[in-house]
Amino acid sequence: MRDRQSELCSKYIKIFLVVSCYWVVSIATVFVNKSLLSGQSVHLEAPLFITWFQCIVSFVICFTLSSTGGIPRVFSFPKGTPWCREVARNVVPLSIMFTLMIALNNLCLKYVGVPFYFIGRSLTTVFNVALSWILLRQATSLKCMMCCAFIIFGFYLGVDQENLLGSFSLLGTIYGVAGSLMLSLYSIYTKKVLPCVNQEVWLLSYYNNAYSIIIFLPLIVINGEISVLWNYNNFDSTYFWVQMVIGGVCGFAIG
User: Fold this and answer.
1) Out of 54, 89, 182, 193, which residue is the most buried by the measure of CB atoms under 10 Å away?
2) Its membrane topology, per UniProt (predicted)?
3) Per-residue pLDDT band at 120 (split at 50, 70, 90)
4) Contact indicator for 105, 51 with CB cutoff of 8 Å
5) Phi and psi (nearest 5°) for 31?
């Protein structure tokens, strides 16, 4: 009996530590990205390029870990390659959602403050409930619907307060709502794609980042960032590249 309680306690502690680490890394990632996207130290008006570079960092880390099999006696990383027709056919549609999700979230973060960004992200729960009913035909309880109503009301209050403070950004809000929608769609379709990669979340992250590097290229051109990059003067700054790499590592940790 005592062994069972000890095992249960150990399990709860492990879950607590994992969730705590996730929140710490998640919050740190948001602040790092905010500094990159709208901070005066970087001052680069190319949010999609910044997001694209973070995908490259994540891809390099995943590629290295996949090649070595992970870190010995710490964790194992499954072997695989994204350059396979069968894998691409199954994963690329999800990777498009992944690309749009991280692009929209970073575009939102560029135009709004961190507190309002988190308020916007809370709409993901509402979209999860709505899309689960629309796409998966899963019934929703009354309590769950009431919680969603409170979230929507909280979002309305957030918009109202931002408007009163004079810091409301319609474009940032649209990006935030669209980003939450894409995150919800991505979460739902991830469940369908995981069996194609043997339920390996690490492998799916590896493939998503590989395909996103390619998908981002036309988006960077369409967003008019080529001329911005051409005229940017801080590419020789060590501080700039350190921040960019830290942002990429944080993105990998969240993924």
Assistant:
1) 54
2) Multi-pass membrane protein
3) confident
4) no
5) -70, -40
What span, in angstroms and rounded, lies between the C-alpha atoms of 96 and 156?
Answer: 30
**Whole-angstrom distance, CA of residue 15 vs CA of residue 233:** 45
The predicted structure's pLDDT at residue 183: 92
- For 112, residues 6+ apart whose C-beta sits below 8 A from its C-beta are 120, 162, 167, 169, 172, 173, 176
- Gap between the Cα atoms of 142 and 105, Å rounded: 30
Task: Look up residue 41 and give its DSSP letter.
Answer: T
Helix, coil or strand: residue 138:
coil
Residue bearing tokens 């575009």: 107
Tell me, what amino acid is at 134?
I
> Measured between alpha carbons, how far is 237 from 217 in angstroms, rounded to an integer?
24
Q: Which tokens belong to 1?
A: 């009996």
Please give the Cα distance from 54 to 57 (Å, whole number).
5
Task: Classify each residue of 112-133 as buried b or exposed e, where b means 16 or more C-beta atoms within 10 Å of its C-beta.
Answer: bbeebbebbbbbbbbbbbebbe
If 0-12 CB within 10 Å is exposed, 13-18 middle and 19+ buried, where does residue 159 land? Answer: middle
Per-residue pLDDT tens for 16-59?
887 788 888 888 888 888 888 887 777 888 999 999 999 999 99
